[in-house]
Amino acid sequence: MNRCGAGLVFLLGCWTALLAGDAPLYVSVAVSLRPALEDAMAEYGGGGERPEVLLNSGGSAVLLQQIRRGAPADLLISASPDEIERLVEEGLAVASTRRRLASNRLVRVVAADATVPSSINDLAGKKFDTIVVANPRTAPLGRYTRQALVALELWERLGPRTVQTEHARYALDYVARGEVAAGVVYVTDAQLHRDRVRRGPEIPVRLHDPIEYEGVVLEGASRFEAAAAALDWLTTPVARAVLDRHGFATP
Description:
CATH class of the largest domain: Alpha Beta
Distance between the termini: 34 Å
Strand order of the largest sheet: 2-1-3-10-4
Oligomer: single chain
Largest sheet: 5 strands, mixed
């Protein structure tokens, strides 16, 4: 596919192609995994030669759309297998390179000086008049949250009170700034910013699909071998230990 089209995204694609061989490794990663991935990639190669890694983070569904439109990317790491599956079906990713990297959980949070709801059903109370959730159309966090709330018959009841954000990190920021009464976020985000929010009990995993992060090398990647090697390395015990420190579980 000729990626040299109009617009900044396509110009970046041309630049990547021109630098093939010495180009950096472009990784599109779900925003909730970015801090852990930054730490993991800092250890990649043990100080030896490795490609420069450039990260682009956002909601997984948004990253999917960027890739479809030709944005430069060698590797996608999504917070859900759905985006990976779509790219494989569309011939935009190499199925044999798919790797499961980590899993996560959901938790309800409030601002650091607020009272945590003891039960997820408490969110239906008058005290929690605004609740932030990620948008199910742009972020897997939103899809998992909707599944859990639908299972508890709360999705429709809470609908008028909800504020939807593009991705997981924005949802956490809304809570931390006290702009909403409560929110549903990933456990790892709540742990990373535990000085900014208070967390309640986790939402039972039986209420939603398993939260699994998958990676895949993209078809036509300018650094295909480097991308495949980096993705394989992320399944090693060294990388696993970094993900564990950030609160991610083994998939």
